[in-house]
Design a protein that fits this description.
By secondary structure, this protein is of the alpha/beta class. It contains 18 helices and 16 strands. It folds into 3 domains: 1-124, Rossmann fold (3-Layer(aba) Sandwich), CATH 3.40.50.2300; 148-311, 3-Layer(aba) Sandwich (Rossmann fold), CATH 3.40.50; 397-452, Orthogonal Bundle (Arc Repressor Mutant, subunit A). It is elongated and about 90 Å long. The chain starts with a strand and ends with a helix.
Length: 455
């Protein structure tokens, strides 16, 4: 049984932690201050120490240093109501495993404790979990999501994957439409055959035609030999036509023939080539509007849109942001050879209040930059680069980018101050109600008010 020492001068907090961690199956001891905790550590070995940051006589950082000097193998987690970037950096430099905000998510604390003990080999993986807290049924063929919308998509894929019906995937750029197409292919009986993807809007018309349908030797300058197109190469498998709304009119006609007759001709060819290919298309445009404007063939639209699948934007599936964030942190920590394991609670809060105009692709880029720039083993708010105008609740905020550039931290502080002051006005000065209105903890709001000197 893993042994945990809880250090906090707040008796209520000690009792709460004792009950909560005991229910999780741990052997819990508590101490009211750092001096008493050090005495206990001399008498007994503890696998994990959870300590408050602000305590009388000896604070959490000083206590952390003494613990690491005496018992370097002991894992330490800091709990604080004053979670700043500087605090996190200092804690990590002194050897803390992680830190969490007091009054934050109980499940987050449980997860961090479990991960810390799992790393030491003192507990096993929870049956419903895999590495980094990603729930097993929240991952499906490379896609991650526990939201209702994503779970519905996973179910739809299982239902339609083995049918011959053509599928049209709809959604904004960056939502993962190609991942859906790949999942459909890999979950079908065609999975051992080729999966070929092409961006219909990213290739010039003449080259796109040859890429799709191939050409015969001598059919145009530079055609020195016969060359098969993707429809031939993908025979028996799946072809994914991304940005299908950008397909030129002349190629819409040729594609319609493939869909209807399962045959086509190479450029310069005279023989029909029969193919068995499953067609999956995707677009971020409104194809029905394009049909009404005469920009897209109605008959082709209906042929491609037998089964529509809608990918929700990331702002409509916010409960998936922590899962995706952890996934990308693990990915880029390995790629960059860094020991970064997690993201600070304040940094995560910024992500949860961000609108993500670029969706999952943007989140991945943000985390990649954050991992690259971070010098500690936890991603801090100052290393997240977000589009200022996309922060939730400030859609009317505008900034003028001067020739000399702008200070992102200063701009974000202006926005944060503005939002907090408006919340306090609306709640007639009640910090408790303002915290509820802003969906943050009371301690988090108090820390921010102190940081911004809001009275």
């Amino acid at each position: 049984m893993a042994r945990i020492l809880v250090v906090d001068d707040d008796q209520g907090m000690r009792e709460f932690m004792d009950i909560m961690l005991t229910k999780e199956g741990y052997d819990v001891t508590s101490a009211e201050d750092a001096s008493r905790a050090l005495t206990l550590c001399d008498k007994k070995e503890f696998d994990l120490v959870i300590t408050d940051l602000r305590m009388p006589r000896m604070d959490g950082i000083e206590f952390l240093k003494k613990i690491k000097d005496q018992k370097p193998e002991t894992t330490v987690i800091l709990v604080t109501a004053y979670a700043s970037g500087e605090t996190a950096v200092n804690a990590m430099k002194e050897g803390a495993y992680d830190y969490v905000e007091k009054g934050g998510s109980i499940e987050e604390l449980k997860s961090i404790v479990h991960k810390a003990l799992l790393k030491k080999g003192l507990v096993g993986e929870k049956s419903a979990e895999v590495k980094e807290g990603v729930i097993e049924n929240n991952s499906f063929y490379g896609m991650i999501g526990k939201s209702r919308g994503m779970q519905k998509i996973f179910t739809t894929i299982k239902k339609v994957a083995d049918t011959p019906a053509n599928i049209l995937i709809l959604g904004e750029s960056g939502t993962g439409k190609e991942l859906v197409a790949s999942a459909i292919h890999n979950n079908s009986s065609r999975s051992k055959m080729p999966f070929k993807a092409i961006n219909s809007g990213g290739i010039p018309e003449n080259l796109l035609e040859s890429e799709l349908f191939g050409y015969m030797k001598g059919s145009f300058t530079g055609a020195y030999a016969d060359r098969p197109g993707l429809f031939e190469i993908a025979r028996g498998g799946t072809i994914f036509l991304d940005e299908i709304g950008e397909l030129p009119a002349v190629l819409q006609v040729k594609l319609l023939r493939v869909v209807q007759e399962k045959s086509f001709r190479r450029i310069g060819g005279s023989e029909d080539i029969k193919v068995d290919v499953r067609i999956i298309s995707a677009t971020n445009q409104n194809l029905e509007e394009k049909v009404k404007k005469g920009e897209f063939r109605e008959d082709l639209f209906f042929r491609l849109n037998v089964i529509p699948v809608y990918m929700p934007p990331l702002r409509d599936r916010r409960e998936d942001i922590p899962l995706l964030t952890n996934h990308f942190i693990e990915k880029y920590a390995i790629e960059f050879g860094k020991e970064i394991r997690t993201i600070s609670s304040y940094a995560m809060e910024l992500l949860m209040n961000y609108s993500f105009p670029g969706n999952i692709r943007e989140l991945e880029n943000i985390i990649e930059r954050g991992v690259a720039m971070e010098s500690s083993n936890i991603i801090l708010p100052e290393n997240l680069v977000l589009e200022t105008a996309a922060v939730s609740g400030v859609s009317n905020y505008s900034i003028e980018i001067l020739d000399s550039g702008l200070n992102l931290n200063e701009e974000l502080e202006k926005i944060e101050r503005n939002i907090i002051e408006k919340a306090l006005v609306k709640t007639k000065g009640s910090k408790t109600k303002a915290a509820e209105l802003l969906h943050v903890t009371f301690d988090s709001l108090r820390y921010r008010m102190d940081k911004l000197n809001i009275k």
